[in-house]
Amino acid sequence: MILSARDLSFSYSKGRTIFEHVNFSVDRGEILTILGPNGAGKSTLLNCLANLLVPKTGELLIDGKHFSELGLRKTAQIMGYVPQNHTPAYAYTVEDFVVMGRAPYLGMMQRPTEKDYELTREVLADLNIDHLACIPYTEISGGERQQVMIARAIVQQPQILMFDEPTNHLDYGNQLRTISMIRSLANRGYAVILTTHMPDHAILLNGKVGVLDRSGHLAVGTAEETLTEDGLRNLYQSDLHIIYVEELGRNVCVAGALESATKREG
Q1: pLDDT tens, position by position, 142-195
Q2: What residue ranges of the chain have pLDDT lower than 70?
């Protein structure tokens, strides 16, 4: 397995435990979609996996080696991370911002080569955002920034790609295109881990699903095993249904009438 988590737990200093006894593995070509309500700790878990936070207990292994054995540079070459939000500090063009994904392969004070820029242009074209290349990153929309951040992670050419709510800020069409792109990245051999609020995204991706509940417990299995009506209703405190749609040839997650939700709240 390219990435394995063994008995992970995390808590902030003198704070409550966010999650504990987290165990899972993901291999090249696999997708793990992590679902959970607001405040459950999905982003915190992803930050631990991305080596941005240090777990309180447990260990993370890449190809059987502990993070500490790899060093920051090697870890950055293996793992690409797309955060949920990014505030730009400088008005780099989109092309220059994306080519920064090549940083783990460059020496001190070394500038990106023409090959690095060629790769950047290929990825921008692949994601259909090459028209943004010469525009300052500070002047594009939140949804466009999300797509540009994804491009920068792909340019990094890691083995593992992590996305924190990758469809955040995106309209419905771009949400679907992003989910399709994530599926294609897995088909190319990337190990993919993402967080989302949308059960339907997990169903569409058809990989492993991890459900992080309010008690900090992560249950991992197939979508069919983990995404049950009772489980989702309890997780989101809403009237949710899993329905098989013949025309689509798959299950979908849909909400019940809004009136029923209002009555329950009352």
Answers
A1: 888 888 999 999 999 999 999 999 988 788 888 888 899 899 999 999 999 999
A2: 259-266
Task: Extract the tokens encoding 214.
Answer: 């309010």
- Long-range CB contacts (within 8 A, 24+) of 178-183: 178/146, 178/147, 178/150, 179/204, 179/205, 181/127, 181/150, 182/31, 183/31
Tell me, what's the pLDDT at 99?
A: 97
Say how many residues make up the chain. 266
231-234 long-range contacts, Cβ below 8 Å, gap at least 24? 232/199
Residue labelled with tokens 């593992």: 160
Domains of the chain, residue spans: 3-227, 228-266
Please state the CATH superfamily assignment of the domain spanning residues 3-227 in this structure: P-loop containing nucleotide triphosphate hydrolases (3.40.50.300)
